[in-house]
Automatic annotation (TrEMBL):
<feature type="domain" description="ABC transporter">
    <location>
        <begin position="3"/>
        <end position="238"/>
    </location>
</feature>
<keyword id="KW-0813">Transport</keyword>
<dbReference type="InterPro" id="IPR003439">
    <property type="entry name" value="ABC_transporter-like_ATP-bd"/>
</dbReference>
<dbReference type="GO" id="GO:0016887">
    <property type="term" value="F:ATP hydrolysis activity"/>
</dbReference>
<dbReference type="InterPro" id="IPR027417">
    <property type="entry name" value="P-loop_NTPase"/>
</dbReference>
<dbReference type="Pfam" id="PF00005">
    <property type="entry name" value="ABC_tran"/>
</dbReference>
<keyword id="KW-0547">Nucleotide-binding</keyword>
<protein>
    <submittedName>
        <fullName>ABC transporter ATP-binding protein</fullName>
    </submittedName>
</protein>
<comment type="similarity">
    <text>Belongs to the ABC transporter superfamily.</text>
</comment>
<dbReference type="InterPro" id="IPR003593">
    <property type="entry name" value="AAA+_ATPase"/>
</dbReference>
<dbReference type="GO" id="GO:0005524">
    <property type="term" value="F:ATP binding"/>
</dbReference>
<dbReference type="InterPro" id="IPR050153">
    <property type="entry name" value="Metal_Ion_Import_ABC"/>
</dbReference>
<keyword id="KW-0067">ATP-binding</keyword>
Amino acid sequence: MFLELENITIGYQSPLIKNADAALSLGEVCLIIGNNGVGKTTLFRTILHQIPALSGNIRIDKKDIKTFSTKEIAKYIAMVFSKPQVPAHYTTEDLISLGKYVHYPYYFELEKKDKEDVQHIIQNLNLGPYKDWNLQKLSDGNLQKAFIGRAFAQNAPVMILDEPTTHLDEENKIIILKLLRDFAEKYNKLVLFSSHDWRLAKEFADKIWFIKDQTLHAGVAEDILISHQDLAAPFLFNMDQYFIPPVISAPLLEKEFLYSALQKNFKKDLSSFQFSYKNPFWEISTSEFVHQCHSFEEIIHFLRKRS
């Protein structure tokens, strides 16, 4: 194992995560998920040794991080924070090239191979048209990709990214997630990242670290999801006290969408209705009738007529 957490407790005045044990190997991609404030960014900062652990040990390549200098941390870990500080007067190419200077003095001229690597990263991130742009002029999405590009250029064995798909549209989210997966597999790197788009991100992750109630649940992605079914279940949020939902028999996605459509349109008790998804139609039944609808619009119209 390349990154190991041993009985680690992290936080500030009070713990956010207690007595966590987890480990990751080179070549693995791990997604970290949990609500805001549970300690995801604090965990990242603790692994970087920017804040001390309250107890326990963190090892990288069998070495205790407490023995690492700042320069050694930078050689082992490339970090992308969700709200990085934007350097003034730098272009996209300048920023990505900065990743190479972890290995050289600041006054050093990059070698031909380094410059070729930077250009390759720029093209893979679809940043070619913006490589000479000042960072201040980039969109939030392209700026995010430029910082990820700097991390790629750093070529450290571990890459940690805090919400790397923030500000990105669906196409660019997939580009980034594919690149992270390819980076781990092709170059035998360890990638640890957090995401609120976890339903998409899990498709690219081998492992999941799920933080809940001060506990870190770690394991193969599918094992974590199936043992915490509140994660995989549709989010059925009741917005109105007068809305009582019907019985819904349907796959998760269709169930979530039907629940959403009904609660927005009916502030009433629908518990006498049963909805069954029969693909491509919905069967609506009560003790008095059975009716078919082929869209949510038809369902809404039908229930309104019966009100």
